[in-house]
Write a structure and sequence with these properties.
heterodimer, A: about 160 residues, alpha+beta, about 35% helix, about 30% strand, B: about 180 residues, mainly alpha, Rna Polymerase Sigma Factor, Chain: A, Arc Repressor Mutant, subunit A, 8 helices
Chain lengths: ~160, ~180
Amino acid sequence: MSDEFTDLETELKQLRPRGLRPEFAAGLGREGAVRPRRTAEVVWLWPVLGAVAAFVLVAGGWHQFSPVGPVRPSTPSSAFASARPEPLARMVPSKAVNLLYAASDGGIVRFADQTAARKVRLQYVDSITWRDPSGRTSLQCTVPRDEVYFLPVTAY
Amino acid sequence: MSEATPHDSWSNWIRDHGPRLLLLARQWTRSAADAEDVLQDAFVRFWRHQRELPGSPLALLATSIRRTAFDLARQRTRREMRESVAGEIPGPEPLFEVPLEGAERVAEIEQALRQLPSEQREVVVLKIWQECTFDEIARTVGCSPNTAASRYRYALQALRKRLNRETNLPSKAPSHV
């Protein structure tokens, strides 16, 4: 710019923009410190997380002997919540669906102590969606899950 | 001696550049609160997706702030958008720190700046307080570098005219009786 406005430019540059509110600056500081570079991390993290979650769910279902109905309430699995990794701490669960797509009767089985039970196998697809409240990012994880029950059989 | 953590460097960066970027956000928002929202979203967008891009980080952030502010404005009604984007800087919150001496002059300059047309005001803020080049300004606001330079010149002329009038100093152009 020409010398015509040098004085005015100098005067303007001496003005200091108003500072940030301390709590706002602190919030921004936390945001940057997390360094959420998710793209590279998620590539390997989610398959591992899915496999771990599926294993926990299947193992939990296998050892659950209490008789239940074929339809279970649709609540987010605690296994997912506990296995949630740190970089996704700001993602909040927004939707959870447990879809029962098959149920089969495995017939009567006998345990080592000769007690009889009916084997029932339920197959689900669990879908959990997380959403970042501060942006437009969402993430959905879909995991197949089998539950096997042994219902006590009483012969009269 | 302890090594600076990423949190420290980020906090220092915010301390150094945050006020200027907040002033920039105020150009395109309806209130200081909206400007903070825009600045936060733009920071997050920049930090996650743009911080390793080539070019000046401040210029990239300026573009991100402008885009975020316009996204926010689009979420409002068309009438509100015109008011927030094309009008004076609304809101009573001061734009600059008020010094112990010369507070009146700062208020005059701020008032004159608020009354500039938005397309001139944004160029002045980018040039003076963001220290952007005219090429960077052009990329940020979506015009040619020559247009950015022209707007800057018109803005300074208007500022000088208003400030001279408010301080009762004689204008360079003689008035005819």
